[in-house]
Every structure is written in C-alpha cells, then in structure tokens.
Write a structure and sequence with these properties.
single chain, 4 strands, alpha+beta, Glutaredoxin, four-stranded mixed sheet
Length: about 200
Amino acid sequence: MTSPYFDTNSEYFQEYFAKGQVYQDYVAAGEEQQIANVRNYESLIALTDEQKALLATYTMKMKVLVLSGIWCGDCTRQIPMLKVIEEASTLIEMRYLDSRTYPELHDKLRINGASKVPVVVVFSEDFFELARFGDRHLSVYRRKAATELGPTCETGFIPPSDDALATELSEWCNFFERLQLMLKLSPMLRKRYGI
C-alpha cells in the first residue's frame, strides 16, 4: 500500500540543504563590514529563559533551509535570531545559502512575485515541507509602514530598539513553535513514534 504522505519537492530541497552552510561558515564568507554588522546584532539578541525552556522541550526534528544575503539589512538582523533558536534546540538543524549564488532557488522561492530575502523553508525529518516564511514579520512591517515611504531595504547599520528586536525574535519563536506542534500532532509521526 502506498503511503498517503509524500512531498514531490523533497529531493529538490534536500539537494539545496546539502549545499548549505552552517551559520558560522555562512557569516564568515561575508565581507568585513557585513560580518561586523551581523556580530553587532549577535550581541543584541538573546532568548528569554522561557523561550529557551520551550525550545529545549522540542521532540520532533526540523530541517531549516535559509536563503539569505548577508548584504541585506533584514538578513543581518534575522539570521542571528535564527542562530539562537537553533542553539536552543538540539532538534533544529539549519543551513544557509546565499541567494546570489543560487538564483534558480531564489526564483522558486519568490514572494509576491519578488526576489526577497531571507526566505526560510522548514521541513520535517522526512523532508516534507512544513512552511515557508519570507522577508519580514508583522512587527517589522508595522514599523516600516509607520516610518517609510517607497521601497527601501534597511541597511543593518542602525539596529531597531531592544523592544522591537525582542518582538521580532518572539515572532520567530512562535513560528517554530507552531511547526513543532504541527509535527507532534501529525498522524504519520504519532503512529511512527507511538504518541
């Protein structure tokens, strides 16, 4: 009997995941100023004890492909957030790819017709896609809508307030919690693990 569970894009994304870099290697490949911008954000971003405790309780594996650009202000801010989330859970494994190196993947992951970064694609242990998230969280769009006119990209040189960073990090944590619950409630995985 054929399983009702499959993902026709599984092999495609597995190939890109295998090409991806771990966080430290991805950041180290940037230019000096880009690396400095990321390091600045690393010093400003920290999970709360409650967020760390919740991430430590995850029981289902997640593979995460991050299409990014270290030259992009949004990425400069968000990839350190993803890093602390990965560090807090032994079951989250992330790989980073530069969007300029993989234009064909960037085209496949367009958002609203545009080439955006970062784009995060999360997979189950079977490499079934759980979700895609691209570009910015709601709190960032609200902040940008209140302060900007026309299309712009933050430079990453001037960080948002501590509260704004904490809110955005919380939105990332909520994104991953939703997917962890999706996996825990999956009939296929519950049967596999006798849950």
